[in-house]
Amino acid sequence: MTHPSAHPSDDPNPPGDKPCSSPPCYAAEFPGYFGDGPAQQVVDGLNALLEAERAGARVLAILRDSVDARSPLHDLLGALQKDEGANAVQLYQTLRRLGGAASHETGAFVGKTLAIEGLVPRLRFVNKGQAWVVRKIDELLPAITDAYARTMLEEMRRSHLANIDACEAALDGLPAG
Ligand SMILES: [Fe+2]
Fold first, then answer.
1. 129 Cα: distance to centroid of ligand 1 (angstroms)
2. Total structural domains in the chain?
3. What digits encode the pLDDT tens for the residues 50-73?
């Protein structure tokens, strides 16, 4: 439909098929799309992983300190704790480097794990959390274009699978409960 009697700029509701000479700038609503920062999906995904790894580091420190310091399990939990802490640092630094706002929160995983009674059930719950992280990385990777971030996530995925296996093996040697 045309409006022959009015100049287009006078029309408060111009037809949608009429090209706008000066389109509004939506760049702030789509960071990443215009090359000025990561997409919100990437920021949200990396922050979810950051909060999970931070929580994992805290929980594993508590679990590590709850077992005999001379036991192999203490060494294993200490190694897992270091991995989680290093992952949190890498995720935080990656978010900052890409220009995303890094979360300062710790995931609810700490409270959920400690609400469970017994070391073995807690470790099984930790492994479920680790498997969640692997799935989250799988979801996120297709959206990641930054080469360093991709390499970091792929390595994080690999180390999570290895740590899940190591934790499973340790659980097999522990009395249930
Ligand atoms: Fe983790």
1. 7
2. 1
3. 999 999 999 999 999 999 999 999
